[in-house]
Design goal:
It comes from Hymenobacter metallicola. Helix content is 76%, strand content 8%. α3 crosses α5, α6 crosses α8 and α10 crosses α11. By secondary structure, it is α+β, with helices and mostly antiparallel strands.
Length: 722
Amino acid sequence: MIGQLSLAVLVLLGVFLLGIIAVVARMYKKAVQGEALVRTGMGDTKVSFTGIFIVPVLHKMEVMDIKLKTIIIQRAGSEGLVCKDNLRADVKVNFFVRVNKTHEDVLNVAQSIGAHRASDPAALENLFDAKFSEALKTVGKHFDFIELYNSREQFKQEILRIIGTDLNGYVLDDCAIDYLEQTPLTALNQDNILDAEGIKKIIALTSEQKIQANSIQREQQKTIKKQDVEAQETILQLEKQLVENQEKQKREIANIKARELAETEKVLQEERLKGEKARIATEEEVRIAEQNRDRQVLVAERNKQRTDAVETERVAQAKALEANERERIVALAQIEKEKALEEERKNIQTIIRERVVVEKATVQEEEKIKDTRAQAQAEREKLVALTAAKQQAEAATVALVGNADMERQAAEFRAKQALIDAEAEKAAAEFKGQAIRTLAEAEASKATAVGLAEAQVMQAKATARQKEGETQANVLQLTAAAEAQAIQAKAGAQAEADEKLGLVAAKINREKGLADADIIQAKADADQKKGLAEAAVSEQKFAVEAKGIEAKADAMKKLDGVGKDHEEFKLRLDKDKSVELAQINIQKDIAASQAEVIGEALKAAKIDIVGGETMFFDQIIGSITKGKMVDRTVHNSEVLGTVKDAFFSQDGGGDFKTNLRRFVDQFGFSAEEMKNLSVSALLLKMMHKAGDDTTRNTITELASTATALGIGDKPAKMLELK
């Protein structure tokens, strides 16, 4: 028990000691370098530069900054220092002050200005400004201005001596003259005795120095100029000698070069003459050799072409003969086959003949319907073809004017190109014509055989299908005729448009269209006589084409020299004629359209026509436009609407003359006054007599309407208002 109590006591003592140590450590304040601690409160005021105990509530601690401080004293202008020679000097001096590191001086400073203000720059400046300025003035009066520059160290030591080192706790360590310069004349007061004397000395000294400086400068300039002139003269003389020597040397060199060039040119011309002679001789020999070679090559090529053509023709003939032989064998086999089939067909015809009697009535009705449909279809296709042809013609006519120049050049080019193409076509046409004739003979033989076989079959069927065949033939013929007529109309319209353009292609298209129509017509006939008719048509077609190509080639081949020029002149005349006809047709269409417009607009009008071409139409359209403009003006203007109602309304009490006469009576116009007045002049006088703005505005709008109607310049008497 006693041990535990002892342990507790020891613990308490340890805690107490630790608390005391912590309190003591907290109350002990340390100082840093450049600071002093000042303690006030219980006991005397204490100063410490290392550390001191501060008991809360009993003591208070202040920190004083004792580091070195800079005080700047500057005097300039009218406040500058007055020197011994009465010259003013602008000066700036830095004083280095600190609190003396002694207990007594720190305590003295703390008691006099306070610990916190002891290191304040503003407080220090207010404290020492007067004393330091007075010291500067006192010391400056003992030195001339020039001596201030030459004896700066002495000037500084005198300042330190006058101020002293003991400054009521502060110590002046040193001072530095940062700026020292003469006060400008503009800052001096001429009414001040000292400044006036200083100004006099400054002007005297500076003037003397300026005179001496200017004299030295002028002497320098004269010496330099003299040296420059002498040097320039020497340089010019040397340059003259140099130029003379250079020109002399150039002249000699030029003479030497000219002689050498002349000699060289002479040798070059002689050598060139020899070379040209050799080159010309060589070129002549080369050209002769080339011409001989080309001649031999041309002869060889022509021989080869002739041999190839003969071989090609021989091969083509052999192939054609083989093809004809094959076709002949096939045709004979087909004929044998048809003969075998014919026996079966004859048996079938017996059955068909019995059924024909029953179907005859039905077929007749159906054929009537087909006839009607064919006619309607033909009429419809004819109308469509005519419409399309008309549209194409109109489009071609519109494009004619723009493309006339281009087509003129194209026609000339095609005419020249056709001559070249004709040569090639002629050669091809010879082989093609022979092949066509051979094929036509084969086709004719085949068609003849087939036609004969079919003729025999048809003869066997004649009793049963004679009426039916005739009806179908008539229908097909009518249909083909309608189609041919439509195509022919279309081709004719297209050919007419192309002919207006002056193109050779137009004639080709027209011939093609007519050929198509002929083919369709021939097709209708061929339904009855199919075999021989097709062979004949094909043979004739190929023969005509071959003859046409050959004739075209011969004709184009003959177009050389004057004949060719004459043919081209004829083509140009035809083209110009087509262009003019197209323009006339365009004018005709325009006139027709204008006539339709005028006819619809003026059905009931009685009009005297004056003017030619489009003048009458333009005048009519202009009059209609003016009328519409006046209607729109009256419709959009309230005032003109009022005037219209007043003068033209039947509710106004009469017609236009009666209303206008009443309006004239309102202003008191007599017949004599209106005798020599126009409508515009009468309205102008009414405007002058009008008593209010509304009436004036009404008369103004009425005058505008009269002008628009074209009666403003008419005499007022023609209205018979009086």
